[in-house]
Structures are given as C-alpha cells and as structure tokens.
Amino acid sequence: MSNLLKYNTTCSFKILILHFESSHGQWAAIVPPKISAVQGSCVVIPCSYTYPKRASKENLNRWIGFWKKKATIISTNLPKWKLPTKYRKRTLFLGNLQTHNCTMMLDGVRRTDTGPFYFRIELPQYGRSYSYTKNDVTIDVMCECLPSLSVQVRDKITASCSVSHSCPSYPPQFIWSHPGIVTLRSKKLNMWEWETVSTVTLKPLPIDFNKNLTCTVKYRGGKQARNSVSVYNQNITPILQLYILK
C-alpha cells in the first residue's frame, strides 16, 4: 500500500513558437521569441543563423557577431570589445559562428533585462552584414519559480523535486532536509528549456514522522525556493515556501 502525492508548481517556460525568417541559404535566424528566467540567475538564448550563398568559392575565415538591444551592443565574440558597464561581465557569447551558432548567455538577470534583443552578423570577406531585427528575443523575468514535488511512501520514502529552467550552464542545486540516497538528472525539454530532477530515497525512522521533508532549490545568484511535505504516519501534506538568501 502506498501513498502518492504530486504537487506541481513548476513555472511555465513553454512558448512553442520559434522565430525564423526563411529557408536555408538566406538571411535567416532561429531563436525563441520569449524566454522565462529567474531574477538574479542566468539565461541562455539559443540561436542559429544562415546567410545567402556566395558566388565565390573562397572559404570564409572571419565571422563577427553582436547581440544588441536597439543600438547598444550587449555581447560579442570579439574578446577585446568594450561592452557598456551594465552588461560587462554579465554576457558571454557561447556560440561558434563558423558553425552558424550564435547562442548567448546573460548572467545576473535583472528586472530591466527584458529586451528585446537581436543578433547581428558581419562577414568582412563577404562584404555583407545583416541584423536579424525581425527575430528579436524578450525575457520574462520572474521573481520566483517554485519546484514541483512528488512523494511516495511505502517501506521507504521516495521523493522527487523538479524545476524547469533556462540556464543549462548553471543548473539549480538541490538540498534535502533528510539524508538519503540522492540521484540527479537533467533533460532538455525543447530548444531553450531544461528540467532538472533530484530524487531522494530514505527509510524513515519513527522520529521522522510528524516532521517536514523539504526540498530546497538554489538558483545561481542566491535565490532559493522550497517545497515541503509533512509525513504523518504515511500521510503527507504539502507546504510551500519561497525566500531570498541574503
């Protein structure tokens, strides 16, 4: 006989429309139009691009990429480029432009980091450049993102705590209030959204009943969210809590 509870408070990241302009071989970019991110954490904006084929068969050996907000450059693959103070050391160009990857990471997400942002490519050998302004990206900055918790009670307690996020470079960390055997797994849900799940298995002692089993999720930047259940002789009751670590 088991007692199973699932309490789903996972934040919604699902925007199932991608921005793209045209077919392969044209000026085209594929980016999500909107991504959710937890304030203070980080967000990875996935991006791929194409450009028209050249008449010349000479291979390109230089690609210059910029991410911009209006006229302001916020990220680039040029290592010596001096970015504005508000973006300096907060953005990282992750993509390899030679392989048509223009992915960027924004760290320490602020409430003002809503965008829209767009990508620009410059090809000096080609003598061409292009701004993908029709393919801009906005960020939905969230103050909180509570985890989802499911618990199964038999002779042992098995609890799984999961959260969706948009920063695979720095996934959330999980802390359990009770010791046990802990496993961690992550999977990619779509182009920009990931799910990380922590599962703990423990054999409760009599003193463990009437106490909370708590999963704490710690995001990059310090924000934490908690989801708890109280175990009363194999009955479970959910308790939710969110706080910011100072």
Automatic annotation (TrEMBL):
Q: Which Gene3D superfamilies match?
A: Immunoglobulins (2.60.40.10)
Q: Where is the signal peptide?
A: none
Under the heading InterPro entries, the entry gives: Ig-like_dom_sf, Ig-like_fold, Ig_CD22, Ig_sub
Domain spans labelled Immunoglobulin: 32-142, 146-232
Q: Which domain of life is it from?
A: Eukaryota
- What SUPFAM superfamilies does the annotation carry? Immunoglobulin (SSF48726)
UniProt name for this protein: Immunoglobulin domain-containing protein
